[in-house]
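REQUEST FORM: STRUCTURE PREDICTION
Request ID: SP-0412
Submitted by: Lab K.M.
Chain count: 1
Length (residues): 257
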Amino acid sequence: MRKILVIGIGAGNPEHMTVQAIKALNRADVLLIPTKGAEKAYLADVRREICDRFLENSSCRILDYAVPVRRADGTYEDGVHDWHRAIAGIYERTLLNELGENQTLGLLVWGDPMLYDSTLRIVEHVRTAGNVAFETEVIPGITSVQALCAGHGIALNRIGLPVEITTGRRLSEGWPESSRDALVMLDGVQAFRTVEDPEAEIWWGAYLGTPHEILLSGKLADIAETITETRAKAREAHGWIMDTYLIRRPAGEEEGA
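STATUS: Completed
RESULT:
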């Protein structure tokens, strides 16, 4: 039976590759590298650098595919579902047309496949279609969350307190009720600017794990504008940006004891 290996490759530093991920890379017969145009060529280039450094299986073929553009009309959820189905079609055609029986397809996933990544959901679309039988194996990877906390030298959670992991879109709709600490990913709207607590602190990072890494921290009220300006300049310089940040609001007296 064919197999799909979903391999977490870390937050952008090739040295984030685990021994398990390197071994998985070398079990693949075909590796798919997504491309997102000239502006995000760096994302594909890191994957190619990883292959250059760690791939020893000379018979493995590396294939590029252009990531479909997610439509902006209609609801956000419908747009995402249609986008996933389009990518699932690419995976399915690769399994059917590029792999023989008992061969393995490797998907190189930024960060970790289990955290704010849709690859596993897309693979399930392929399985649901039922046109090709395959097994799935998932290899965990270092996330931007880990890289952010390591870069700032902080623990993710406070003693006895939960952390809400959410998106910028959700944070912009209001602070989560379940936690005083929010770890925010996929923020295209700079939602940190909507947090009005004067005592809130932020630890922000962009291009985590890469040579372009930027780290800023402090009272949110004091550095929100600095983050906004830094983010804009970095996006203009590189053509894209991926940032992650942790915001902590003061815990109540009954919390964090």
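NOTES: The longest strand covers residues 2-8.
Reviewed by: T.R.
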